[in-house]
């Protein structure tokens, strides 16, 4: 299927085995050795699925899942040695799509991963598309076009544009955008929105004219 899959596993040997197996199946595995590296990868790139180990030092898989689900609907499959039902229920509550309990066979893991990706793609409806001000956004495909030209956005930029388009012609404060897009609910980071808006405008070019700055209030996308 030529899918891009993020494999998050702190055990180097197992991570290598998983990457080699998915590569042999014609997929494009990308590895991360811990939770922080996983979040950095997800900020920079779009993936078709994430295989996420739960028991990792530092930032564990549950914390990573919680952070990802603030702005990203990518399918997440947990790799876990935990078999307790309460742990699995917590994972589902945080947004996990499926589990594979260690030890597992590579063929079963691959089959479950591909099934998640196919199901996610089938959920794409004709209405899974937004347009405004010469900008077209395809939600499931994570693609944006400005006047027909594809624009490559980071996940944060994509989440910001999506939020503005979903609330078209409405003024959203910096604080609202932080919470709606990235889940930040504390003061002191609101100017991060200005930085993301600036980058978004640069990438959209002339079509960025529809994103208006409302003095002392926030931003509004007109369309």
Automatic annotation (TrEMBL):
PROSITE patterns: OMPR_PHOB, RESPONSE_REGULATORY
Domain Response regulatory, chain residue ranges per copy: 4-117
Alphabetical list of InterPro entries matching this protein: CheY-like_superfamily, OmpR/PhoB-type_DNA-bd, Sig_transdc_resp-reg_receiver, WalR-like, WH-like_DNA-bd_sf
Keywords: DNA-binding, Phosphoprotein, Transcription, Transcription regulation
Pfam family, one: Response_reg
Residue stretches making up the OmpR/PhoB-type domain: 127-223
Residues bearing the modification 4-aspartylphosphate: 53
DNA-binding region per Swiss-Prot/TrEMBL record: 127-223
Function: May play the central regulatory role in sporulation. It may be an element of the effector pathway responsible for the activation of sporulation genes in response to nutritional stress. Spo0A may act in concert with spo0H (a sigma factor) to control the expression of some genes that are critical to the sporulation process.
Record protein name field: Stage 0 sporulation protein A homolog
The organism of origin for this protein: Pseudoflavonifractor gallinarum
């Amino acid at each position: 299927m030529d899918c891009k899959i993020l494999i998050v596993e702190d055990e180097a040997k197992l991570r290598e085995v998983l990457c080699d197996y998915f590569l042999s199946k014609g997929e494009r595995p990308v590895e991360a050795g811990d939770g922080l590296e996983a979040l950095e990868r997800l900020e920079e790139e779009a993936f078709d699925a994430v295989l996420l180990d739960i028991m990792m030092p530092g930032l564990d898989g549950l914390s990573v899942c919680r952070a990802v689900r603030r702005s990203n609907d990518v399918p997440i499959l947990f790799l876990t040695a935990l078999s307790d039902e309460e742990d699995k229920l917590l994972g589902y509550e945080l947004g996990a799509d499926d589990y594979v309990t260690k030890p597992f066979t590579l063929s079963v893991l691959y089959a479950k991963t591909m099934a998640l990706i196919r199901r996610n793609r089938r959920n794409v409806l004709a209405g899974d598309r937004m347009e405004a001000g010469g900008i077209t956004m395809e939600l499931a495909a994570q693609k944006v076009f400005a006047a027909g030209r594809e624009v490559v956005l980071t996940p944060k930029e994509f989440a910001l544009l999506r939020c503005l388009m979903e609330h078209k012609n409405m003024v959203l404060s910096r604080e609202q955008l932080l919470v709606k897009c990235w889940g930040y609910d504390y003061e002191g980071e609101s100017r991060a929105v200005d930085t993301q808006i600036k980058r978004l405008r640069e990438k959209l070019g002339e079509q960025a004219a529809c994103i208006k700055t409302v003095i002392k209030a926030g931003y509004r996308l007109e369309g």
